[in-house]
Specification:
This protein has about 230 residues and is of the alpha/beta class. It has one domain: Class I glutamine amidotransferase (GATase) domain (Rossmann fold). It is about 30% helix and about 15% strand. It contains nine helices and nine strands. The strands form two sheets. A seven-stranded mixed β-sheet has the order 3-2-1-4-5-9-8. The chain has a two-stranded parallel ribbon with strand order 6-7. The longest helix is centred in the N-terminal third of the chain and has 12 residues, at about 25-40. The chain is globular, with a radius of gyration of 16 Å.
Length: about 230
Amino acid sequence: MMKKILLVVTNVDQYASGNLKTGLWLSELTHIYHAAKEKGWQVTIASPKGGNTPVDPESLKPLVLDGISKKYYENPEFIHELTHTKSLEEIKNEVFDCTYLAGGHATMYDFPDNTTLQSILRDQYENNRMVAAICHGVGGLLNVRLSGGEYMIKGKDITGFDWFEETLARRKNEVPFNLEAALKQRGVHYKKAFIPMTSNVVVDGHLITGQNPFSSRKMAKVVVRELEK
C-alpha cells in the first residue's frame, strides 16, 4: 500500500552571528528519501517558506558524505526538488502517513516557533499518524502543544543532538539554544547513545526520533518498518 511522506527541511543558510554557513544536513534527508522512493511511496519536500533549502557545507565533506547522499547530491532532479520545495502553507491541509523533520543546525532558527509546522504536527500526532524527527530537526517538536494544552513530547522517550556532540561539532557558541536542555525542560525521557556521534533511534509509539547524522540510515529503516506494520 502506497504511503505519503512529508519531509520538512529548512530555509536558513547561516547562523545568527553571520560567521558560518549552515542549512540542511544532507544525509538526514537523503536516507529517508531513498528508502521511501525504493518502496514506491509518494514523497513531498516542504519548508517553512517554500523554495530553496540550502545544504550545510559541513555535510558535504568527504568524511561524512556517504554514498547515498553523494548520489543524490549529484542528481539534478533531486537538487531541483531541494531548490523548489513547497511551503508548509501549501501542504498544511494534506494528509500524510509520516511527517519527518530533517535536521541541520539551521532548523533551530525556523522550526521551533513556526505555528504552521506546530499545527501540522499536532494534527498528525492526534490522528495517530507518524511524527519523526532527526538531530536538530527534533527542535521542531519543542513547542507543539496538543489540543488539551500539554506539550506533545511531555513524558515521551526522545532523543536529539546532545550538548556534548555540540561541543564536538564546535558549534556550542553559535547555536541559539541547547537542544538537549530544552528537551529536558519539556519533561521528556531523554535517551542518548552511550558513545557520542553514534547511531541512536528512539521509538515511542508513533513518535520516532534520531540523535545525530550518524542515525540517518537506521532512522530510515525504522520509519519504513513502523509504517509497514
